[in-house]
Amino acid sequence: xxxxxxxxxxxxxxxxxxxxxxxxxxxxxxxxxxxxxxxxxxxxxxxxxxxxxxxxxxxxxxxxxxxxxxxxxxxxxxxxxxxxxxxxxxxxxxxxxxxxxxxxxxxxxxxxxxxxxxxxxxxxxxxxxxxxxxxxxxxxxxxxxxxxxxxxxxxxxxxxxxxxxxxxxxxxxxxxxxxxxxxxxxxxxxxxxxxxxxxxxxxxxxxxxxxxxxxxxxxxxxxxxxxxxxxxxxxxxxxxxxxxx
Length: 245
Description:
InterPro entries: CysQ/Inositol_MonoPase, Inositol_monophosphatase-like. GO terms for molecular function: 3'(2'),5'-bisphosphate nucleotidase activity. By secondary structure, this protein is α/β, with parallel strands linked by helices. The protein folds into two domains: 3-122, Fructose-1,6-Bisphosphatase, subunit A, domain 1 (Fructose-1,6-Bisphosphatase, Chain A, domain 1, 2-Layer Sandwich); 137-244, D-Maltodextrin-Binding Protein, domain 2. It has helices at 3-23, 29-51, 83-87, 147-156, 166-175, 189-201, 234-244, and strands spanning 56-59, 73-81, 94-101, 104-112, 119-122, 137-141, 159-163, 180-183, 205-207, 226-229. A hairpin with a 6-residue loop joins strand 4 (104-112) and strand 5 (119-122).
């Protein structure tokens, strides 16, 4: 099984487990989110250690020991991206399974378990990008949209589309439901490693908001900003970011 195949398989199964946890009716509210995080994380850690015992792992839900820094191959996972949306049974939450090789998002999968019966977007199965909208759509947080994204949207004549998790927003660009995902409100490596691997494989522009490369498996897990967009919009968006900073 290739790395991308493994990522897709694990993300899909973790998504199914999460839906079963939610449908068990044993938990609700914050308890549901905590239970989902714990069960999904446990499954992903166990499977990765069994299938790729020599690789490092960085998970949002596990203590970071920094032993991963000695490894070139590190799996970066978010067991539930968008805990609030997961608890509300919305479609805009995700499971991230990404692989960093020598600091680059090399392979990955993002599962959207409540979308279309369980959709998984992956770095090894690439479809042509759907036609773009005439007016660019920028996906932003549905609860706390970043001010800079709002300013950029105004500068380029774009339309804001509110959405939940980072993975769901990034995959909206891959799926053709948006043209641009610009985030400046603070993220961590697990928030965007798998989405960037999938988006880059589909030919999208992926960078920091200053245009510099996204690097993974650094000692600081913070990766506070990201731009994922259709390539034809990259330069214009980066210029708008500079002008609105």
